[in-house]
Automatic annotation (TrEMBL):
GO terms for cellular component: external side of plasma membrane. The keyword NAD does not apply. Residues 34-208 form the Folate receptor-like domain. It comes from the Eukaryota. Pfam families: Folate_rec. One of its GO terms (molecular function) is signaling receptor activity. Belongs to the folate receptor family. This is Folate receptor-like domain-containing protein.
Length: 274
């Protein structure tokens, strides 16, 4: 029984990842979705345990749990990724990669940029998220004198040992040398997730921040709403400082919603029978 349920649950999990993005048909549906991954919640919601020291920008509305956020900050090989593959990262560089990891796990605003990406740890990823150039420049400046052995961390490492190792024949060099002294090449290539864009001159939010003061509204939300409206070819409606309704009380967003309920039920039955 447990074997059958495991098989069924796995099949539904994969199928859900392959179809649910096609079911996003309103701006709100894009705003109430988390990446489909083992470290992500099914939908965004408050996480009061996120403090000034752990992924604090997303305390009010997060796609990660407190445990995941704590793991990001304390585990040197989070998701089996060795940040120190060419020797220890400097504290300032590590801090920026922690910010990026918090964004990856916790941000509730990447719905319009989600694409299929079937791996052990996830079924989706975000690609082409517009990253503000000053944010990118600061990240690069923090890491340019640190060492790495490849420019594409999502693709080029050797994972045969279960932890990322430098590709055969590669050598450790400064980030500045590996990424050709370009902050843009670094931010766009290291994980293949971002598209660096200049900030708008009129003050309109047009790009994402990896980190922000949680005392103020999330600046990334307006950017995500605008992009969702563009995808759906509907009028963009700006909501100043608005908080979305608790997705647990939301109306069904389509077939994927019912499938999520079935997945939750099967998980409960499976865990009780094991």
């Amino acid at each position: 029984m447990a074997y059958f349920l495991t098989f069924l649950l796995t099949s539904l999990f994969v199928g859900n990842g392959l179809s649910r993005l096609n079911d996003l048909n309103t701006v709100e549906s894009y705003m109430n979705i988390c990446m489909l991954g083992k470290q992500h919640k099914s939908s965004p919601g408050p996480e009061k345990g996120l403090t000034s020291k752990i992924c604090s920008p997303w305390a009010a509305r997060s796609c990660c749990t407190e445990d995941t956020a704590l793991d990001i900050h304390t585990n040197p090989t989070w998701l089996n990724f060795d940040w120190n593959h060419c020797g220890p990262l400097s504290a300032q560089c590590r801090e920026h990669f922690i910010m990026d990891s918090c964004f990856y796990s916790c941000s509730p605003n990447v719905g319009p940029w989600l694409v299929k990406d079937v791996r052990k740890i996830r079924k989706e990823r975000f690609k082409g998220v517009p990253l503000c150039k000053p944010v990118c420049d600061n990240w690069y400046e923090a890491c340019k004198d640190d060492l790495t052995c490849t420019d594409e961390w999502a693709q080029n490492f050797n994972w045969s040992s279960g932890i990322n190792k430098c590709p055969q024949g590669s050598t450790c060099k400064k980030f500045s040398e590996v990424f050709k002294h370009s902050s843009v090449k670094f931010c766009e290539k290291v994980f293949g997730s971002f598209k660096v864009v200049p900030e708008s001159k009129d003050g309109t939010e047009n790009c994402f921040h990896l980190w922000f003061d949680s005392k103020f509204p999330n600046p990334n939300e307006a950017v995500a709403r605008r992009r969702a409206a563009e995808i759906l070819n509907v009028e963009y409606v700006q909501i100043e400082g608005a908080k979305l309704k608790d997705p647990n009380n939301a109306i069904s967003l389509g077939p994927a919603w019912g499938l999520s309920l079935l997945l939750s039920f099967l998980q409960t039955v499976l865990f009780k029978s094991s």
